[in-house]
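Why do we care about 3D structure at all? Because function follows from shape, and shape follows, mostly, from sequence. That is the central idea of this module. The next example makes it concrete: a single protein chain, its amino acid sequence, and then its structure expressed as tokens.
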Amino acid sequence: MAAKAKHYEKMHDMLQASISTKVDCGKMCAPLNNGIPVCCTADHAVPVVTTGEWKHLKRTTDAWKKFKPKDKAGREIVEELHEDCRAIECKIAPFCDRNSRTLACRSFPFFPYFTKQGELIGLSYYWIFDDRCWIISNLQVVEKEYIKEMIETYEYLFKKDKEELEAFHDQSASMRRVFSKKGRVIPIIGRDGGYFKILPKTKGAIVPAKLSDFDAHGPFKSEKAYAKAISEEGGDPTGHSLKDAGV
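And the structure:
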């Protein structure tokens, strides 16, 4: 059983909240990505939707087109897609309206995290973006309304699509393996907005956490690192500050 277009219409209505109403996180990473937020280009990750969501998008917005691979890596992504999935690309990034965004766009960089016992306890993030996505280093700006809407939306999805449920169980298990091997804790934003951490090499042990338990990454570790990264991208760091986010 797969979610249909009508189900995605409902889910898009359910997940309307912004990650933060105080910070535009795209403005923090854009200076490091040719002026475009990392999540708005197919250069970092090719957007993939199910056929159900693709049908919904085609009848509600002109913002999307089928992704056309430009290299071997892109061709492999398309060739390896599940038969119920489509690779797409945004035509109006980074100026899209929220109603045109896919479920993945609204969720990025977060995903619903399942414990080893199968409980959805909150949100974690796609760690391969931790050196490019500012908000991963600033979880304190993630607001409760967003957390609530995202979890409720995905719980609805899981009732309609068992393969999606299995996919996020697998994603959570993969994160445990990777982080345990590296000796890193997994940051979790709980359902109520509190924080937890999954300890490495403990078979997924969960303990309460503080923001100070979580590391900043890459160019977002310090003002010096941020300015240096902007300069290396050929930009002018003047006028760009991590303090612009008010955190």
